[in-house]
Amino acid sequence: MNQSQILLILGAMAILSLITLNSHRTVLSAANLRLDTEVVITASEVAESMMNEIKSKAYDEAVTDSNTVDDVSQFTLYMGPGWSEYPGYYDDVDDFITDNYKNKPVVINTPRTGPVTATVAVHYVKPETPTVISYTQTRMKRIRISVTAARLSKAVVLDSFVSY
Fold first, then answer.
1. Whole-angstrom Cα distance, residue 149 to residue 158?
2. How far is CA 85 from CA 46, 61, 103, 105, in A?
3. Is the pLDDT of residue 21 over 90?
4. Of 4, 88, 135, 161, whose CB is crowded by the most CB atoms within 10 A?
């Protein structure tokens, strides 16, 4: 075997190595993309499930038990669970807020995506501009669920509005 044949063999081996490395990188990238997509889908499912439960409750404590309200000032100003309300027994949408002494962020451990953390915020908003938080009672509330996970670059946020 002469030198030119050895150089051709070495060149072929180098090209084969580059092709192999590139194909492995592509496979690994596809696997990471699949896992990232799975995390986003899981986070979305968690948010949607929580939103469905929250929206199944009454608009406000003042209108539970088939009560009615004529003036918005009759709605509760305090957002969060009442003193006698505990998880599993909530009756209105703002009871689910996660920034108080009763409700901590919800952490769900999944076997493939790891822990997923969900927080809930509920605010009165102005019906004519629902992106603006109102610090007085109105006939509309915004429910915001934010879900984070280690593999998410930013939170999955689900907003919904309920009105009375």
1. 15
2. 23, 11, 11, 17
3. no
4. 161
What predicted TM-score, i.e. pTM, was given to this entire model?
0.80
Residue 91 identity (one-letter amino acid): D
φ and ψ at 42, to 5 degrees?
Answer: -60, -45
Q: How confident is the model at residue 88 (pLDDT cuts 50, 70, 90)?
A: confident
Q: Rg (Cα) of the chain, in Å, rounded?
A: 26
| Maximum separation of any 2 CA atoms in the chain, in Å | 99
First-to-last alpha carbon distance for the chain, in angstroms, is 89
Question: From CA 98, how far away is CA 118, in angstroms rounded?
Answer: 9
Phi, psi of 39 (to 5 degrees): -65, -45
Q: Tell me which residue of 11, 42, 12 sits closest to 112, measured CA to CA.
A: 42
Are 86 and 102 spatial neighbours (Cβ–Cβ below 8 Å)? yes
Q: Could you tell me which residues come within 8 angstroms of residue 146 by beta carbon, excluding any fewer than 6 positions away?
A: 118, 119, 121, 155, 156, 157
The mean pLDDT value for 27-38 works out to: 82
User: Is 80 in a helix, a strand, or coil?
Assistant: coil
The single-letter code of the amino acid at 140 is: M
